[in-house]
Amino acid sequence: MKTYKPGEYWEQRLSQDFDLSGVGHKGLSLDYNIQLYNRRLEVLKSRLSQAKIDISQSRVLEIGCGNGFYTQFFTQHQVREYVGIDITSVSIDNLQQQFPDHRFVCADISELDVSHLEGKFDIVFAADVMFHIVDDEKFKAVIRNVACVLRSGGLLIISDILPQETTQTALHVRLRSKSEYSRLFQENGLTIRYIEPIFVIAHPSPTYGHHLLWNVITIFWKSLLRVKFKRWLIVDSMICRLLLWLDRKFLCPKYGQKTPNSKYIFAYKQ
Ligand SMILES: C[S@@+](CC[C@H](N)C(=O)[O-])C[C@H]1O[C@@H](n2cnc3c(N)ncnc32)[C@H](O)[C@@H]1O
After folding, report:
1. Per DSSP, what are the bridge partners of residue 85?
2. SUPFAM superfamilies under this entry (predicted)?
3. Which has the closest alpha carbon to 86: 59, 68, 113, 60?
4. CA-nearest residue, atom 19 of ligand 1
5. How much is the pTM?
6. pLDDT tens digits, 68-77
7. What is the CA(213)–ligand 1 centre distance, in A?
C-alpha cells in the first residue's frame, strides 16, 4: 500500500522544479501558477492593509517556505527577523544561499522541538502547508507548536481550503473543516479574526461541495486536468486570466466564504 512520506515527496518535487510549479499545482502550467501566486499576494496585501497590520519590524516564522516566494515578500517588507522552516534540504540550502541574512531550518514542523527557535514570534505564516499534514495527531502537534511560538497578541496567517467537512482528497492532502480548525484553535488559545477568500474558480476546486453548481465546477476542473490542458499554452493562460477576473470581481466577494477553495485565515493568540 502506498503511503505519503512528506520528506521524500517534497524533496523529489522541489528538486525537479524549484519554481512555482514545484510548490504550486502540478496540473497547471508555470505561467498559470505564477498568475495564481500573484493573486495570493494581492489578497494578502489587501487584507493586511485593510486590517492596518504593519508587518515591518515583526519577527516572522514561515512554515513550509518552499521555493521562497513568501520569503521574498517578507524581505521586501523589511521584517525585523525571518526564520523559514521546511522539511526539504533543497528548499533550505537554496534559500540560505539566496537570503544569507535570514535563518533557515530543515525540519518537520510536527516533530520540531520549538525551543530551538529561541523566543516568540510576532507572526507565524504557513501557506498551503497545513493540508499536507495528513496525520491528525501530527496536525494537532503543529497547531500546538504554532501557538507555543507565537507571542501573546501575535498573528497566525495560514492558507487552507475549509470544506464543510474534513476530507482526504489525495494521499498527501487532508482538508480540515472550519469547525475543526476553530476547535483546535480554541484549545490552543487562538481566535480566528478574518477569513479572506483567494479563489472560487480560478484554482482547481479540490473537492466536491454541498451545492450542485459547485459540483459542476469541480467536474469542469477535473475534466480540464484530465486532458492535461496545461499543454495548451496560450489557451491555458487565457482561461486563467478570465477565471481570475471572475473571482476578483464577482465570485470571491459573493461566494468566497462558503466555497471550498483557498482562503487566508488570520488568527490571533490570546
Ligand atoms: C505546497 S508547498 C507550499 C510552499 C510555500 N508555502 C508556498 O506557498 O509557495 C508545501 C511546502 O511545505 C513543505 N512541507 C510539507 N510538509 C512539511 C512539514 N511537515 N514540515 C515542514 N515543511 C513541510 C514542503 O516541503 C513544501 O515546501
Report:
1. 63, 105
2. S-adenosyl-L-methionine-dependent methyltransferases (SSF53335)
3. 68
4. 108
5. 0.96
6. 999 999 999 9
7. 31
